[in-house]
Amino acid sequence: MQIQGEMIIGGKAVRGEGGTLHALAAATGEKLEPVFGGATHADVDSACTLAGNAFDSYRGLPDESRAAFLEEIARQIVELGAALTERAHAETGLPLARLDGERTRTVNQLNLFAKVLRAGRWHGAIVDTAQPERKPLPHPDLRLRHIGLGPVAVFGASNFPLAFSVAGGDTASALAAGCPVVVKAHSAHLGTSELVARAIAVAARNTQMPEGVFSLLIGEGNWLGEALVGHPEIQAVGFTGSRHGGLALQRIAQARSVPIPVYAEMSSINPMVILPAALAARGEQIARGYVDSVVVGAGQFCTNPGIVLALEGDALDSFCSVASGALKAKAATTMLTSGIHRAYCDGIDRLRRSPRVTQLAEGQAASGPFDAVARLLRVDARTFLAEADLAAEVFGPSSLIVACRDFDELRTVLRRIEGQLTVTVHLDDGDRAMGGTLMPTLERKAGRVLFNGYPTGVEVAYAMVHGGPFPATSDSRTTSVGATSIERFLRPVCYQDVPDALLPEVLRAANPLGVERLVNGTPVR
Ligand code: NAP
Predict the structure, then answer these.
(1) Claim to verify: residue 133 and residue 75 sit in the same structural domain
(2) If you measure from the C-alpha of residue 262 to the centroid of ligand 1, how many angstroms do you get, rounded to a whole number?
(3) Is the pTM value of this prediction over 0.90?
(4) Is 41's pLDDT higher than 90?
């Protein structure tokens, strides 16, 4: 499959006539071939209208057909072979081995949602049978299931050009929910986006999906995303990126004559707490694992451990010294875009402007213009609490160690920080009481609480929560990774006294789909 510089609109390759744009090589900033044609307002309208027209026929398909579509997308992505990972490597600077792993994750995600569809629990079917004799009033027959919200706009993330982009988790979960998808390609990986969009178009053709089930739009400037979110056919938005971008799109969605939900994953500094017994017994080992977690993927992970909280003293000093030694050996790595590189350098400058922040160590020097040099910094908790800027996300391979005078101060820092995707605690037996005291705060702060591990590495699974209170995400009730991410794009419908033949199959008396339902409060298959 060739990259032609085209969009996919309703299954067809379309050359945009709204100006031209290039993908850039992450390592050098040089233009990559071919030239892309940018979308026009008419293209946005066409993609969204086709998506709106496809909605009823697509959501009306049997679960098995949508599952087969998702599996076929996975197969087509594998078929793209090395061309996909090589292009993604050129556009993002991410190593080929990492991109191979990311492709596997993307494929597994699509296959997971095929399984979710076949299991049938996503319908959330509930039956309350009629009680005509009930006094003083009869109880009607009530049946509930979930349906898709409608066409979903997806904004691919820069840092996962496959797993959080065109055929990533947002697209897979929306398609599973019966929602057509219109993707706005991330400008940092246009060619990768086109290749994956072409694979989806082939899969849609091979499985006879309705025209309009999927489109990819490419363009320069915020107008495209704004027009997409503002289009009346779009019913929900999936976004991963900056706090600024996510909030801008949320404002547009709220200002529409019919407001729609924006599921935006934005900003998180993922605190890692090291309790005293663990610090004393395993400080060295934790320090090495922590530094690996800080620098992996040039630190461009939303779950990067941006701050460490521990009690000041000799054990913390030795931890800092081991972590510094480990970090100094880490090579500088190419960042995703020149803009992200600039934001990283600005973030480090901002931290270092605070007189009480000390830089403990820096990694190997940069060799390319957009290489990030790893940094380790330290500050006392009083300063951290007093200077709000120190708690802002610095997207890249850096972390700030916050030394607390005592456990109360550590708990105060945790209570004051903003909402997070993750909070990690390292504890040993002697720390159990402190760990227990922290639990209520940890639950309130983060979507995922993990012990004796590192937050980078997000398993795609049934119980995963990759979400959290604002500003980690715009809606803490949801996750963007894992089986339950489908719930973002569903809404419940109740059917009252509807004749059996008119009910959706999943709610009929004979339960022809054989799915588990809650019948009068009891699970029944
Ligand atoms: P971004 O600038 O927020 O862009 C994400 C997507 O949204 C892109 O497609 C972008 O369009 C679009 N967009 C952004 N602002 C918009 C607006 N006001 N109106 C319409 N569309 C808009 O994120 P990024 O480029 O991936 O990275 C920039 C920063 O985001 C990083 O430095 C980091 O701080 C943060 N980030 C966080 C995470 C996370 O998981 N928490 C992940 C990645 C990045 P264009 O493609 O045209 O720019």
Answers:
(1) yes
(2) 14
(3) yes
(4) yes
